[in-house]
Amino acid sequence: MSIEPRAPRLAVLIDADNASARIAPGLFEEIARIGEASVRRIYGDFSSPRSKSWSEILARHAINPQHSIAYTTGKNASDIALVIDAMDLLHSGRFDGFCLVSSDSDFTALAARIREQGVDVYGFGEQKTPESFRQACRRFIYTENLLPAAVERGGRPGTAAVASLPDGGLPDGGTPEGGEGDRLEGLPGPINRPPEMAVPFLRRAVRQLDNEDGWVGLGNVGKMLSELNSDFDPRTYGCGKLSTLVEKSGAFDIDRTAGHGVQVRLKPSAPAKGDPVRDTPAKGSPAKGNPAKSAPSKAKGQG
Fold first, then answer.
1. Which CATH number describes the domain made up of 196-266?
2. Which CATH class is domain 9-189?
3. What are phi and psi of 45, to 5 degrees?
4. Minimal CA–CA distance to 163: which of 188, 145, 153, 26?
5. Which tens digit of pLDDT belongs to each residue from 128-173?
6. What Å distances lie between residue 107 and 58, 67, 270, CA to CA?
């Protein structure tokens, strides 16, 4: 009897001071696509009003709070506690990956050290997260893409639902005076980049995989994108799937032949503005400006 492969075992470590409680449902849905969240810990001073919104949803998502009292202003004891726990968990050898939830670049060295051990690191943070931390992770997911889509409430896709309830509470059960990142004025704006902005990244990935006929599998393109840009995500461009993004970008030919999966290739480059437009001759027809030479006719009467 065959044994089903075990899902990757993950340790989820959340920096409460640099992550909004609103991302929790989307966060654990995203993590479930990667593997099993065996350890779920959150670090912060839960006696502070800043962490109130997290305190209200800990039980709902089975998150284990690691309380750290801020003994001195300006010193973040919770960050140190997170790093110590991460190293203990790493050396236990029980985990296949770590999910670090923070927008703080202070965890760059931690992510790099874990990866040196051959263990994957998945980062989750806002767009403002410094590049050093984003690139230290195998994959980095913007938390703005994890917020509830406003399209479910009649708004634009990819926007966060921030309307408060009639009693002044928030949809997730928190209150406007909750965590620092949960106040209405402090919420990150939606990521709604046009699909055309993804073309340079897509083109680079396709060219890395290019073969003789120019067609490459979309699945391979997705893998290459993750290797080249750890924070690349179709949702950043308002698309739920990579195939939708490629199609909306308008820069690629798409082949959906049954049995071969989705294949894509770069469209021929358009002429630069001001350049003369040249007609492409049809297959088998003579090129414009080079008419086929007809056989010379013999003059009447000449041998």
1. 3.30.420.610
2. alpha beta
3. -95, 100
4. 153
5. 999 999 999 999 999 999 987 533 323 333 333 333 333 333 434 4
6. 23, 19, 44
